[in-house]
Amino acid sequence: MADNRLKVQLVRSMHGRLKTHQDCVRGLGLRRIRQVVEVEDTPATRGMVNKVQYMVRVLEDG
């Protein structure tokens, strides 16, 4: 199951953003800028990442 994981990093501030976008970032488990979390690669988490793509970065393993 390790193959079905994404590493997501918050790179921009949540201040002044739409409430739904803030909720997506919190739902991914991100709280601070430059924090990296590992989440399951599901359609739900992909949708959350796509919604806030301007605030997060998906990191490559390697």
From TrEMBL:
<dbReference type="GO" id="GO:0006412">
    <property type="term" value="P:translation"/>
</dbReference>
<dbReference type="InterPro" id="IPR016082">
    <property type="entry name" value="Ribosomal_uL30_ferredoxin-like"/>
</dbReference>
<dbReference type="InterPro" id="IPR036919">
    <property type="entry name" value="Ribo_uL30_ferredoxin-like_sf"/>
</dbReference>
<dbReference type="Pfam" id="PF00327">
    <property type="entry name" value="Ribosomal_L30"/>
</dbReference>
<dbReference type="GO" id="GO:0022625">
    <property type="term" value="C:cytosolic large ribosomal subunit"/>
</dbReference>
<keyword id="KW-0689">Ribosomal protein</keyword>
<dbReference type="GO" id="GO:0003735">
    <property type="term" value="F:structural constituent of ribosome"/>
</dbReference>
<dbReference type="InterPro" id="IPR005996">
    <property type="entry name" value="Ribosomal_uL30_bac-type"/>
</dbReference>
<protein>
    <recommendedName>
        <fullName>Large ribosomal subunit protein uL30</fullName>
    </recommendedName>
</protein>
<comment type="similarity">
    <text>Belongs to the universal ribosomal protein uL30 family.</text>
</comment>
<feature type="domain" description="Large ribosomal subunit protein uL30-like ferredoxin-like fold">
    <location>
        <begin position="6"/>
        <end position="56"/>
    </location>
</feature>
<comment type="subunit">
    <text>Part of the 50S ribosomal subunit.</text>
</comment>
<keyword id="KW-0687">Ribonucleoprotein</keyword>
